[in-house]
């Protein structure tokens, strides 16, 4: 990988994180009503996902350009987990420190973003031995590399995103059983975030099993389809709310669920790339990074329509701003899948 290209791919997640941080702060400072509070907090805390994506990018790139040291092996995943802890703890504080509906909604969503960040940080942790993937692909099945993860470490890497997914889905469904407005909004979104975490289980599994050289034809089929199913559920769930339960309460969670489904399809690009190039020549591998570019544009185009709708109906204000932030997350994933393509192209 060219050094300056590697710098660009590390700048992209930091730039998107800075945009989410600055834009979220601007929205939060723009007014004192519930909509600006929720939108500002959610967009601002989307930056922690960008931080975790940066640690993933830096972990893989430094191995490819041979500048990966023991200090980076510890520091990069640790930075991601610290960002995750900020989101999880911050979300719980928002829920408990305020009595308004905006505190309840923002707190649960921010907590969910912390769960996603924890899963992405686990991708970074599982990628600390990424350099084994190209050699394992050439070595053929049956060869267990000496530098691979221990059995206990493999179990831990699988457990973290699975637990995060279960927490998001179960807690979200439990909240949404109440008919109160904040519960409906927070519950739907938190459960949808749990499905994004489930998609990241597939990414962690694909990376780990290729590092362990235990990636099989069944893995090649199962993990991409898991992400497709999770993303489709999020999108169909959002459409159901918007079509069959349309109202001021369901507008925000409906569109945010669609945005979360689009993020899942961005994650699909990474899982799909790992599956397609594993011990198979795939001439179109260089085109797969276009998937997160298209998903980012989709989020931004949807946001443009929502901004126009918000001039008439304030219920569209929050999803319009959040969709912009989700577009930034999708574009950040473009840098990650491009790095993967470079690292596995041989």
UniProtKB/TrEMBL annotation:
Pfam families: DUF2776. It comes from the Bacteria. The chain crosses the membrane at residues 7-26, 38-62, 74-95, 107-132, 153-173, 185-210, 222-243, 255-278, 290-312, 318-340. The keyword Transmembrane helix applies. Keywords: Membrane, Transmembrane, Transmembrane helix. The keyword Nucleotide-binding does not apply. This is Inner membrane protein yhiM.
